[in-house]
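Bench notes, bay 3.
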Amino acid sequence: MKRVLLTGGSGFIGRNTIPFIKDTCQLYAPQRSELNLLDFSEVKNYLNDNNIDIVLNFANPNPAKNVLDIRDRMFEDSLRIFMNLFYLQDSYDFMYTLGSGAEFDKRRDLVSVSEKDETSSLPYDGYGLSKYIINQLISQNEKQCNLRLFGCYGPSDHESKFITHAIRCCLNNEDITIRQDCYFDYLHVYDFAKIIKYFIENKPHYKSYNVCSGKRVALSEIALLVKRLMNSDSNIVALKEGLNKEYTASNLRLLNEIGDFDFISLEEGIKIQIEYEKSCWNLK
């Protein structure tokens, strides 16, 4: 049984992935108090003491979601966590890092982008730039792989994320506000977890994969779907007219490798999240 270190286990992606993989490997998912990923010596000792086979690097410093993260250090901390693990790769067999479509530079339309697409400009924001740099390092190393997420949703997602926002607006009988309509690719977090399970058991053929549904959907369509599923009378209000930049990707490389995959439909995924939000809402 492989010994797997999962970083970022208290985050949205990590905590939803753990239940899907914990019975298929010897899983280590230390909390921040147990392992400071910013401390090189701590990381080195942890890897050596636990004889790790695979690292799932899901740690993603984000001050908007965790008060322990510092806004001015988001770029540096993201890179430092990766580099501490990257530098110590002799202490494990393979590492998967959670990437982002933001590395393609979200100031332009990203329409069904593939892994081979090249950005014509570097990302302007620190988050996107850190992901771009990390991908460049991964692309030249045999023990690394970048699993690039675009839109991911599901139970316990942050209130700032649109699907969570739309559901909570309906629960509170408020308008569903859209800053500006745009097309996204949304993958259910349970599907992401199943894909991770595959990669724990199978070595990848490529250095990067777009981990996405491969389907584009407008935020306005999602709002209408949430309203219908919740039988809500909430209004949908776009704060700015027109369409914002598209953010969608191709998953053909992924599907060619893992074979047939039964994705959770957007409707079924939103139903799951509605039930989760209702259970939390009833506790308030």
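Next record in the batch:
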Amino acid sequence: MKEELAQEYLKQRGYEIKDIKHIPEGRNHDSFDVTLEDGTGLIARFEKQTEGKNLDPIYNGLRTLDREKNLCEIVRTKAGLPAPKIFGIYRSEEASFILAEKMRGVYWRDFIAQKDYDLQSYLQSLRFLGEDIGKAQQVKFESYGDIISAKEIYPEGLTDFTERLRFITRLQLDRAEKQNSAEKKELKEIGSYFEKELDCLEKQPKEKGIKPVLILTDLHPMNFLVDEKGKPSGYFDLEFCQSGDPVMEFYVLRFSLFNYFDKYTFQKAETAFFEGFEKQGDGYDKEKDSNAIKERILLSNHLLAAITAYNKIKDGVRDDWSEQFKTILFDLIKNKELDYPSIADVLRTKTKQPKTPKASS
């Protein structure tokens, strides 16, 4: 959607626009940075037109403006984290959009670049993030699934996380098959691997009294804002939020933030994050067999989703990403080792961040 058209829809709703700029991020929305005539800053997020239901590619969660509004409220009021207030939802056959508070700060990726990839600034930002994730995980639910509202989780009554993983796995295998993102022989091997891992998880001792927690799930370098010290100041893209197991958050952070530099920095990043997390969270034992199995299953699913997503993309940058992610997945299947730095090396061909941070002076 062009800025002129977005401005016209806003004017139809009574908003006088001083300035409007397109935000070139997001596959589900056309987003705009809006300044009203009185100087008020807003973010307008327009739903993109899709055929059928708009579902997220990882958990198959329904993406709606109402759910987005509910999730922002839960993160802000229940977890006490900086999420935007929603000022209105406007619907029409031509365009439906949400108006949200403009949060202060810069994208985490830009903060790291502004600090000239300084190691200590990077690690401190992850300590701050760890504290926030610890707060989020103090918010408990009664069942696993997509958070629709504070009182509604879909599907209803799912109290076995293994069953949630089975659903996610079937979803990714079906999508890969329908889109021909892997050969039949490869899909058979991947499916067999998942079945063995899920069966192994099923046999693990069940912990009593453990409740699902609030999971943000989609934290990557361009998906949250930080202040001048690297402390998160805005979580604004929350449509993937889950009532889930803590490992659902941690594997994504390893996938997108802890591996931002080389493998030597990866461990320092993880340590810094958990220093912050342990101030607020309930603790987490990544070496525990059940947690290790869950992480392998989740990462394998994410890799399979990436294989499918990039299968037909030919843009001169991501042409071979599908095959590279496939190589990483089959290495994981063979060795059961989580090679997060290799994932960053694939993404680095587009993001261009350096592989090594700069030592603090």
